[in-house]
Design brief:
single chain, about 1950 residues, 60 helices, about 40% helix, about 15% strand
Length: about 1950
């Protein structure tokens, strides 16, 4: 069997094809993975993928492409590093990282970056292939790598990745270079990215496209040049383009003739007054309108001109072509000035050539030097482009530049008529001729773009004897031809006659060089026009060259030529690197020919222009040293001065590029072997006389040239030694020592006057460091170092701060440190002490910190590069500068930032450099250095200060703003150095500052640093990509764990001193434990146990630990820290730790509290991540808020979350809930003048002011939420406060607001919400929802289906349960989410307002759905055997009552269910409810019809038809059959009273129907009369079936108001638009799409005939959705004889399936879970569409909130309100004259309790926490006649509680101004703090929220504990004013005559 053999060389490879790894131990591979091989066996490798080294396996060898690699740490932990090019490695890893992020860009819909990155990635892959192939040249490889790195940097920047430090395109390992060098690289790349370097050289690219004009027909010549309008002169040569007759380039295939580059434009040339001027010349006839056959001679004639400013090109799009307008002269003689006139806009001298004439040109400004352009615009130069130069040299003259161009401008001429009557047409022809008179071929250049010609013809100005041309030509004549050459100008008259001849009439000439060798001087020359004959032969130039050519140089006796008027002016300008026009330069160069002129020539050298000197630099230097060698005694001083002048001239920026020329001369051409003696002598002479010289300027010039003087001295001595074999060495050394002694003496002098010596010293020091390298050529390193040390040491240290010598000293030190001398370790040890001494002085005084930082950077960078042991140097630097460096950093970072933004980068640079220096120094320090450092501190105080300083500096270095965001490499290096240093210093901390020497400040600084270190973002490895995390762990490990272990170790050493850090360090340590690193958490969490233990020892408890933990947890977890794993780990570790502690019980309590808080905080944070506000966010906030209040009693956190909840409600537009929420804070405040601090968004103010502000805000939100009843209470309270202060202005406003609320209650419409029960089951729900059930208040118009959908959207992973049964334990414990939702009906607590007659329906509607604690859900079922003939016998109702922890509405739209009560309603009770509710519905509709509140009679018609027809067809008969049978009565003797009640209700229904038919008869329209007659007939049939002949006597009892009338009718005489009964749920819900219609709850099915008839007449069906809805019992049954158990016996919950059609018979009795949601008749989740408790009673459309009485208004626009009725039951039907008889009251029912009398004062009914399991049945209305027909049962009647629920769930009553005793009426459970109050619900829920339980320290304003209405007969619909019933909490009422002192302060909010 073969064995696995470890691999030797086959270590690294790339996967070529994917491998699934299906074999045993196989390792799955993907193509492109990089793998490391460990072993090999028979074609298989064993290894791992580098991205996942923990997973090892085998894979085939054939799948791997091997690559060369370098192995580090060979053995078990070996690492493989590819030996490929580092750029390739970086590309590979970067592209892998980009690939994952690129896909995420697509997911995030960042399409633009997605596509750009895709193109860049493809480009990088292509370049990578080119590099891998290896066929690129060296230069091309460099360009490709530069391009690759630029693309990599661009992508990293776009993806917010880290900046990569590079050197020569390769990534830099930060461990291989010093920190200072790393910082420089990062800073360089950062600056390169942010601030591109400005460019000083610019070029203009011009591409001539075409000339568009309609009147062409001749060839054109176009000239471009750059023109300076300020100086009125051209700046460049001309660019010349020839166009054909169509206006297109004549040579389209030659791009160099169409394009040019105007080169070497300076930044000063890009001005507004610099223009591109275009002159256009036509080639053709003299006149543009002449006939073609007139003349065959072609003339150059002016055509047009165009100009454009260069400044316009800076902003224009470079890709756009420019269409330039072309102008022509009005007067041809002004052609030479046309461009000036256009620029100056002298409109009278030019005009537009034509509206359709334009010059199409492409213009583009390019920036950079010409070599850079050649690289960037290769196509431009390869295709061909001409170069157009500036006139003269550029700003910088480069050595080797060869130019010899003579520019001649033909300015003007003055000519005579020549005997003609008109002026001449003059044409000038120019020739360049050599010494032999031969024409120079091709040397007359019109401009770039076209080759030079032999001659040039100017354009012709028609009939002009004084022509002005201003034409520029260039004569590039070679230097060797220049001598003897001349230029001839021939003048011809161009005839316009038939022949068109050009007749010669004169000429001029000018020689190009004078006899002494000087060229034609620059400037304007007036030339003589020599006349000649027409046929004169000028080829023999010898004949005229002897003539005079300058008019100004004519001899005095030549009056003939002087008197002539004819002249010709030219301007010449020579641009030559070889020829000169300066005679003094020529005299100096020819000094041997005239020895007597040497002195003058040397003196005049300083006056010669610098450009002339650099032209002949080598010749000039040879001349000077030649004179010095031959006449040193005589001319040594002058030669020295000339040499100094030339050296300083080359330091000028214009000629600085000639410095290398001088260096080359010294090395290769200098031959003055004896010159060193004279140079040393003269230099020492100058230095010695510095003290005595009154003027120092010349001496400073000498010292400025010190560098090159020493170069000449050293080179001369070397040449001498070489020639003589080293003779006179001692003499030379002695001279040099004497020279340096003079220099040191001169440097040691101090100023006593106006500082002339100081400035001279500064000049010398600037040039002195450049001498070191020259001295090393002749002296040893130690000798030179000694020279430098003594010289620098002689500089005076004490000088004024503004002295120029101070900056120069540091500059000299910088150059010294950067010099070759300092890099040598042998010399460095000599120089370092003096440098450190100067550095220390400067840094202590905080002067020139930029230079100090630079010096220190250079010194420390050298330590890393040096291969020798730098321990001694490090020790010197540490001893001298470490403490000073720390202080400097503290001073810089604490210094306020300057306001000017230009100063900030400098300060930042200094800070960064000093930081890098400190880090580099600390990295170089070893154990020995730390030991020596700590031993140097003479006292503990010094050591303490040092530790405090260094810890503070480290905290500064960790700040995020210290380095740029993408400097991750620099941050990691910094952290590695910090943790290493801290580990060294922690020993010193333990040894010197523990036990009796304990110092809290040092230890606190240490712990703070450690905590900040661990929490740095750059160390949170969990947030990084896998590759980045792996690199960091490999290089540095997890530094957080290392620091955490160090914290734990140091904490354990503290002993009893730990108490000093409790509770201060609890928050920081908690923040550390929240870092998601398991090892760190395991180390740090036990510290909390230690803190608890020590706190227990000190205080006997650990309340401080608990308080601090709770306070910090909230802020830290809200920042996103912590997770579920942390909660579990915290709980388990601490519980394990405290197992054996004596305080175990209290510890467990603390841990449990903190754990529960974490659960809620985690839930809160998860909920807040969702974008929009939903119920989950609000519910979570409520849960957390309650936890802070009830379990933690943290008032400040409680108030903060109150406001967070308030903001959530406002965002969701839950204004009522927002008001209740803000009331929680309001109730914590008193009406006192106690000052409150600034808190949240509240300013500093008194408690009274803040409470007033809260009141007003709450009022505003109650108004917006249409909860005006609650607002009225607050208005009254606030009004009482204003009244107590006599603030009548605000009192008036508050009363008006209160009045407006009353108006809004009566006038505005309010929608009644529906309520839904929601169960959250399963472990996946948040803690505050898990396995709990809630009742939710729905939004406006929200039905069950919409609510279900909303909940499923909020919980997208939840499963909707399709039944209403309670889930079992498997659902509770399931690892999923289950939602159980069904609708429920509210149960009002009291019936006071709802049962009171005369109360407006708008008032009642509020109390039906507000402040509801209990909700009901009914489920019908059959018990026992079901009777198929009559199902009512066995039809029971299962009624579930849910009691909440808080009433709705409240601080949330949902509250948890606290208790469930389940009762079963018997079939008899169900029948009573059905009939009773139907009677209520009939009464309501009859009343509305009577009072004309209904717009039509259809609802009453349908209701009557449904009841009568159902009764006729067996509806009531079914009840009779079921419950009046003898068997039933005998078997159920206990139901005797109920059977009697059922019988009474049937009789009552018959009586109501009779009256209803009477009313119907009055209002029924004519077309419905047949239906009415049918109803009357059926009614008589129904009466007979019931056995009713006449109604009993009690039906005709004393009169009772049927409508809203009551004995209080006089007080409430206004019509009421709301339904009169209080027991039924009659809601004024209106929809613009609805009509009033019949009840849909229990209305029986009409017979088929009646149903069709009604449908035909009314246009509606009984199942129509647009009907009035009553609120009967939810178990209402159909009374139709054709149907058995109706689906209407359903849940009382609101239905979401409104308007659905009636179900077929076969579906009526099926189970609800078998049906679709739309068809299911009744279930918990899908209740019946005709459910009685779900429907509101829609009012007619239109604004029914406003009363209408105008008879002109149409019926739909009116709202007829009910009026009190005055009829009684004693009145017979005939007495009404057709108006219909009154409706009798209900028969008496003995089961009803007696009502209290009306005279009784209002008393608040107390709410018992125990609910009755079975509510009583509805009592008879005759028991209390004032209630009319309103049922008294809140359960069976479906009525609602009145008033606003007391938020304290207790009540206070007050009768006739006296207070009830506490045992009769318990006090409200106030939310105030300071009283012992009964706690409701056994502390399982937070205390109730109340807007009433308040103390009024200024004026007691008693308000009832609830906004509910008192249960008296005459209780008003809105509660009485607070001052009538409200009293101070728990305070006995004081007699009126007592003064009202301010109450004692209680514990209220301090915020």
């Amino acid at each position: 069997m073969n064995m696995w053999i470890p691999t030797e060389h086959e270590k690294y490879g790339v996967v070529l094809a994917s491998f699934r790894g299906t074999v045993q131990h196989g390792l799955p591979l993907e193509i492109g993975d990089t793998v490391q091989m460990l072993e090999k066996c028979e074609g298989w490798y064993r290894g791992f993928v580098l991205k996942n080294p923990n997973s090892k396996g085998i894979f085939p060898c054939s799948y791997i492409h091997l690559k060369n690699a370098h192995i580090k740490n060979k053995g078990q932990f070996e690492m493989v590093v590819p030996t490929e090019d580092s750029v390739i490695t970086e590309m590979t890893s970067t592209l892998r990282d980009w690939g994952a992020m690129w896909k995420q860009l697509y997911v995030k819909n960042e399409g633009d970056l997605f596509h750009r990155l895709w193109h860049v990635m493809n480009e990088i892959l292509d370049l990578r292939r080119q590099v891998l192939v290896g066929h690129l040249t060296h230069d091309r490889m460099r360009d490709v790598k530069q391009h690759i790195t630029a693309r990599l940097d661009w992508g990293n920047e776009q993806l917010c990745l880290d900046l990569v430090p590079r050197k020569e395109f390769s990534m830099v390992d930060p461990e291989e270079i010093s920190v200072t060098e790393l910082y420089r690289l990062m800073e360089h790349r950062h600056r390169k990215k942010e601030t591109p370097t400005p460019v000083s050289t610019h070029h203009l690219f011009v591409h001539m496209k075409s000339l568009m004009s309609s009147n062409l027909g001749e060839e054109l010549e176009v000239f471009f040049f750059i023109y300076d309008s300020r100086e009125n002169k051209p700046l460049s040569e001309r660019f010349f383009v020839k166009l054909n007759k169509n206006g297109l380039p004549k040579y389209p295939d030659k791009s160099e003739r169409q394009c040019t580059l105007f080169v070497d434009l300076g930044s000063g040339d890009l001005r507004k007054d610099v223009y591109i001027v275009v002159h256009i010349i036509r080639i053709g006839r003299m006149g543009a309108g002449e006939k073609k056959n007139t003349c065959n001679v072609q003339y150059r004639r002016p055509f047009g001109c165009a100009v454009v400013s260069i400044a316009d090109l800076l902003t224009a799009d470079s890709k756009d072509d420019h269409l330039l307008k072309v102008y022509a002269c009005n007067t041809e003689s002004e052609w030479s000035q046309i461009h000036d006139n256009i620029i100056k806009k002298v409109n009278i001298r030019y005009n537009l050539l034509g509206s359709n004439t334009g010059l199409a040109v492409a213009l583009q400004l390019l920036h950079g030097d010409i070599d850079q352009l050649r690289r960037e615009y290769m196509i431009l130069f390869t295709r061909g482009v001409s170069i157009t130069r500036k006139l003269g040299f550029s700003d910088v003259i480069m050595p080797g530049e060869m130019r010899n161009d003579l520019y001649i401008t033909l300015e003007k001429g003055e000519f005579e008529k020549g005997g003609k009557s008109v002026a001449r047409n003059v044409e000038v022809t120019i020739y360049a001729l050599d010494a032999d008179g031969q024409i120079l071929k091709g040397f007359v250049a019109t401009g770039s773009g076209e080759p030079g010609g032999d001659e040039y013809h100017t354009f012709v100005l028609y009939h002009n004897n004084s022509p002005r041309w201003a034409e520029l030509i260039k004569l590039p004549i070679p230097v060797d031809v220049f001598r003897g050459s001349h230029v001839r100008f021939e003048f011809r008259h161009c005839s316009t006659k038939d022949k068109g001849e050009k007749k010669l009439f004169g000429f001029s000439f000018v020689p190009l060089m004078q006899e002494d060798g000087r060229t034609l001087p620059d400037g304007t020359h007036e030339l003589i026009v020599h006349k000649c004959e027409e046929n004169a032969n000028l080829q023999d130039c010898a004949r005229y060259l002897k003539l005079h050519f300058y008019k100004c140089n004519l001899p005095g006796n030549n009056q003939t030529l002087k008197g002539t008027k004819e002249s010709f002016w030219i301007t010449s300008f020579l641009c030559s690197t070889k020829l000169t026009q300066n005679g003094d330069m020529l005299d100096l160069l020819k000094w041997r020919a005239h020895p007597e002129r040497i002195s003058d020539s040397l003196s005049k050298l300083k006056e010669i222009d610098g450009s002339e000197i650099v032209k002949f630099l080598q010749d000039t230097l040879d001349t000077l040293f030649g004179i010095l060698d031959e006449s040193s005694q005589k001319y040594a001083l002058k030669v020295f001065d000339c040499l100094v002048h030339i050296i300083n001239l080359l330091q000028d920026s214009k000629f600085q590029h000639f410095m290398p020329v001088m260096d080359t001369y010294i090395e290769g051409h200098f031959a003055g072997a004896l010159s060193y003696r004279d140079l040393i002598k003269v230099l020492k002479w100058y230095v010695d006389r510095i003290i005595d010289a009154e003027r120092q300027e010349h001496i400073r010039q000498v010292l400025k040239a010190t560098e090159y003087i020493f170069k000449y001295i050293i080179q001369s001595r070397r040449l001498f030694a070489l020639a003589t074999g080293g003779q006179n060495e001692e003499e030379f050394r002695c001279c040099m020592h004497e020279l340096f002694m003079s220099i040191r003496f001169f440097l040691s002098l101090e100023d006593k006057g106006s500082r002339p010596i100081t400035q001279t010293q500064a000049v010398f020091l600037q040039s002195f460091p450049a001498v070191y390298g020259e001295l090393l050529k002749l002296f040893t390193v130690r000798e030179v170092a000694t020279f430098v040390r003594e010289t620098l040491g002689s500089i005076p240290t004490a000088s004024q701060s503004d002295c120029p010598l101070e900056a120069v000293k540091l500059h000299c030190i910088v150059k010294t440190v950067e010099s070759e001398l300092y890099t040598n370790p042998e010399s460095r040890c000599i120089l370092l002490p003096v440098i450190l001494r100067l550095m220390q002085a400067y840094m202590q005084e905080q002067k020139d910190l930029v230079m100090c930082a630079h010096i220190l950077t250079c010194m420390l960078s050298l330590l890393k590069k040096d291969e020798t042991d730098p321990s001694e140097e490090v020790n010197l630097i540490v001893e001298s500068l470490l403490v000073v460096l720390l202080r400097t950093l503290l001073e810089i970072t604490n210094r306020p930032q300057p306001a000017a933004p230009t100063l900030r980068p400098q300060v930042q640079d200094v800070t960064g450099e000093f930081v890098a220096c400190l880090l580099a120094l600390l990295r170089q320090m070893k154990d020995l250095h730390y030991m020596q450092l700590l031993q140097r501190f003479s006292s503990k105080d010094d050591l303490r200060d040092f530790l405090l300083h260094i810890f503070t500096v480290f905290r500064i270095l960790i700040r995020p703003e210290m380095f740029s965001k993408d400097w991750a490499v620099m941050r990691l290096v910094t952290n590695n150095i910090i943790i290493t240093t801290v580990l060294y210093l922690s020993d010193a901390l333990r040894k010197n500052f523990l036990n009796d020497k304990f110092d809290y400040k040092v230890w606190d600084s240490y712990f703070c640093l450690s905590v900040i270190f661990i929490n740095q973002p750059c160390l949170q490895l969990e947030t990084f990509s896998a590759s980045k995390k792996k690199k960091i762990l490999e290089k540095y490990g997890d530094m957080r764990v290392m620091m955490g272990c160090e914290i734990f170790s140091m904490w354990q050493n503290l002993g009893e001193h730990k108490l000093n850090f409790i509770p201060a360090m609890i928050g920081p340590f908690l923040e550390v434990t929240l870092v998601p690193q398991p090892d760190l958490r395991n180390v740090m969490i036990p510290i909390f146990h230690d803190m608890m233990d020590w706190e227990q020892r000190r205080s006997g408890n650990f309340k401080q630990v608990e308080a601090k933990l709770i306070d910090k947890l909230d802020s830290l977890m809200s920042e996103g820290k912590g997770d579920e794993t942390y909660r579990e780990l915290f709980n388990s570790i601490l519980l394990k730790k405290i197992e054996r502690e004596t305080w175990r019980e209290s510890g467990i309590s603390l841990i449990a509290t903190v754990t529960r808080l974490m659960e809620r905080l985690l839930d809160y944070r998860d909920c807040m991540k969702v974008g929009e506000v939903d119920g989950k966010k609000i519910g979570c906030t409520v849960s957390l808020l309650n936890f802070y209040k009830t379990e933690l009693n943290k008032e400040e956190m409680y108030i903060r979350y109150i406001h967070k909840l308030y903001e959530l409600h406002l965002k969701a537009q839950n204004y009522t809930e927002a008001s209740y929420t803000l009331l929680l804070y309001d109730e914590l405040l008193e009406w006192s003048e106690r000052p409150l601090r600034e808190f949240l968004n509240y300013p500093m103010q008194s408690e009274w002011q803040r409470k007033e502000h809260l009141h007003l805000t709450i009022l505003q939100n109650f108004d917006r939420g249409k909860c005006w009843e609650n607002g009225i209470i607050l208005c009254r309270e606030l009004a009482d406060q204003y009244e107590s202060y006599y603030d009548y202005r605000n009192l008036s406003k508050m009363r008006m607001m209160e009045a407006s609320f009353y108006d809004k209650i009566m006038d505005q419409q309010r929608l009644e919400p529906e309520f839904f029960r929601v169960g959250f089951y399963g472990k996946k729900f948040p803690f505050f929802l898990r396995n709990k059930e809630f009742v939710c208040r729905g939004h406006d118009y929200e039905r069950l289906e919409a609510f279900q959908q909303r909940m499923l959207n909020e919980f997208p992973h939840a499963i909707a349960m399709q039944h209403a049964n309670q889930p079992d334990q498997t659902i509770y414990q399931a690892d999923a989410q289950y939602l159980q939702i069904y609708a429920v009906a509210p149960i009002p607590d009291s019936q006071d307002v709802l049962q009171r007659d005369g109360v407006h329906d708008n008032i009642k509607s509020f109390y039906k759905v507000n402040h509801i604690w209990r909700y009901r859900y009914d489920r019908p079922f059959h018990k026992g055997t079901k009777d198929k003939e009559n199902e009512f016998k066995s039809l029971w109702v299962e009624r579930t009552t849910l009691t909440l922890v808080q009433s709705l509405p409240g601080i949330s739209r949902w509250f948890e269910v606290e208790r469930r009560e389940l009762v079963e309603v018997s079939p008899l009770e169900n029948a009573i409810e059905v009939i009773e509710n139907k009677n209520l519905q009939l009464r309501t509709l009859i009343t509305q019809c009577q009072t004309r509140q209904m717009q039509n009679i259809n609802p009453l018609t349908m209701c009557l038809n449904g009841v009568i027809d159902a009764a006729v067809n067996g509806g009531l008969a079914r009840y009779q059959e079921a419950f009046f049978a003898k068997d039933y009565i005998m078997n159920h003797p206990e139901d005797g009273d109920k059977i009697g009640r059922l019988r009474e209700l049937m009789f009552e229904q018959a009586h109501i129907l009779e009256f209803g038919l009477t009313v119907h008869d009055k209002f029924v329209p004519q077309d419905m009369r047949p239906l009415h007659k049918k109803l009357v007939d059926q009614f008589h049939l129904m009466k007979s079936s019931l056995g009713i002949q006449e109604f009993p006597a009690y039906m005709r009892a004393s009169p009772t108001h049927f409508t809203n009338g009551s004995t209080r009718g006089g007080r409430n005489s206004a019509p009421n638009i709301m339904n009169p009964e209080g027991g039924g749920r009659v809601v004024a819900r209106r929809s613009p799409l609805s009509y009033p219609a019949a009840n849909r709850y229990s209305s029986s099915s009409l017979s088929s005939q009646a149903s069709n008839e009604v449908s035909n007449i009314t246009g509606q069906s009984e199942s129509s959705d647009e009907v009035f809805n009553m609120q009967p019992s939810p178990s209402t049954s159909s009374l139709s004889s054709n149907h058995s158990a109706s689906p209407n016996v359903t849940s009382s919950a609101p239905s979401s399936t409104r308007g659905s059609p009636q179900l077929p018979d076969k579906q009526k009795h099926t189970r609800e879970n078998c049906l679709s949601p739309r068809d299911r008749p009744c279930s918990a989740v899908y209740p019946n569409p005709l459910d009685p408790t779900l429907r509101a009673v829609p009012q007619p459309p239109s604004d029914s909130s406003l009363p209408r009485s105008d008879p002109s208004i149409s019926t739909p626009d009116k709202v007829v309100k009910p009026a009190p009725s005055s009829w009684s039951l004693d009145t017979s039907l005939s007495d009404f004259n057709g108006k219909g008889p009154p409706i009798p009251p209900r028969p008496p029912y003995t089961g009803s309790p007696a009502r209290t009398t009306r005279s009784q004062s209002p008393v608040i009914s107390s709410r018992s926490p125990q609910k009755n399991s079975a509510p009583p049945f509805t009592p008879s209305p005759t028991e209390c006649q004032s209630t009319g027909l309103v049922s008294n049962s809140p359960v069976l009647s479906g009525s609602y509680s009145s008033g606003i629920s007391s938020l304290s769930r207790c009540s206070v009553s007050e009768a006739s101004g006296t207070e009830n005793t506490p045992w009769d009426h318990p006090f409200p459970n106030s939310t105030s703090i300071g009283f012992d109050e009964p706690i409701r619900r056994e502390n399982k829920t937070p205390p109730p929220y109340s807007i009433h339980d308040r103390n009024n320290p200024r004026r007691p304003v008693p308000i009832p504990p609830g906004l509910s209405i008192l249960p008296s007969i005459d209780a008003p619909p809105v509660p009485p004013k607070p001052h009538q019933i409200r009293k101070p909490e728990m305070e006995p009422r004081r007699p009126d005559h007592f003064p009202r002192p301010r109450p004692l302060p209680r514990k209220v909010s301090q915020l």
